[in-house]
Amino acid sequence: RDPLWSRGLGDVYKRQSKVAQREVATVKKELNWSDVTSEIQHVNTLSAGNSLQLSIHAQTHSSQFEVLGEPGLSAERVAQTVVESVKEFAQSQSAVEEYLADQLLLWLAICGSGSFTTMQPSLHTITNIAVIKQLLAVEIKVEQHSEKRWLISL
Question: pTM of the entire structure?
Answer without folding.
Answer: 0.81
